[in-house]
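seq:
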Amino acid sequence: MANASSPQLAQRQRIWISLMITLALAACVSQETKRDAINDINAEFKAQYEAALAKDGSHIVKASPECTFDATNAGLVSLGMVIKQQSRGLGYIQAEAPAPLPLTRSEWDRASAIDLPKAKEILRRHVGPLAEAFQFEPQGLDTVITATVIEASGGAQVSLTMRLREVAPPQSGLPRREYPPPSALQVGLDKIWGALDRELKARPCKS
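struct:
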């Protein structure tokens, strides 16, 4: 029994030592350095965020703005989002939910894994080995989605934004990001457009 448990014990000891080293390194890194690191990640992801929205952040649909507004509202709710503000006259909707919504946790993990190497590369410039402990943790964050619906030639134009807002301190000790991981953003956009399409098909909308 002692021999059988030795590899497991050794593995637990390595994990514990790794955790202690990470905590020790974190204690040696100033808050200013941590902020600089996350600011660099935000700058990188902001550029990708803006490029993604320029490419896929707006769609033209062949339906009236009124019907499109209702379908957008219903589509966001179907993905677990909670409507916090809306104005039919302005064509404005703001929806919120705990992250990783509108993604599932498995979708978030798969998408963020694509962007994790780049984030760690940026972090290493500032915090060295501490970067290896970084993960795109959704805990303590809300996803905030805004949608605007305006009249367009042949129907309506829907435009989306998606940002992250801190509601609880991060477990990692690193400051929060404002922008979702680029791959998670794209998955979120795809899900919202899919939900909007389903809602429009279920309604007798006319352009």
